[in-house]
Specification:
Cytochrome Bc1 Complex, Chain D, domain 2, elongated, 2 domains, mainly alpha, 120 residues, single chain
């Protein structure tokens, strides 16, 4: 086998390996991507549209990011039901706002790295 032939085979093998690694990286991250929403907007929407009914002593009962774990918030938004399952969440805000509120609540849930009460 000549030197040029071995170098060419090595180059092709290296390129294939790098392509495979890149593909595996893309595939691995595809399943873990979270929905893209704005945590900042979500906090504002929560305070504007949810907090009046979900403050301590209010008719909807106290609800804050700390009320649930991240998994519980994900389940809540997957079901997309409000008022004990009686109403769709979309009755209160559109899908884009719901996504932002979801990101805020999950990112600051009781078991998150940055739990938050949603301020006073």
């Amino acid at each position: 086998m000549t030197y040029r032939y071995r170098a060419l085979r090595f180059s092709i093998a290296a390129a294939a390996a790098l392509t495979g690694i890149a593909l595996l990286t893309v595939l691995a991250s595809a399943g873990t991507n979270s929905p893209k929403g704005s945590e900042t907007k979500g906090r504002a929407y929560y305070r504007q549209m949810c907090k009046d009914c979900h403050a301590k002593g209010a008719k909807g009962g106290e609800v804050s990011p700390l009320t649930k774990t991240q998994a519980q918030w994900r389940t809540y938004f997957q079901k997309a039901k409000h008022a004990g399952g009686a109403e769709p969440l979309t009755k209160y805000m559109d899908d884009a706002k719901l996504l932002d509120v979801q990101v805020f609540l999950i990112n600051h849930a009781a078991d998150s790295p940055q739990p938050e009460t949603c301020g006073k």
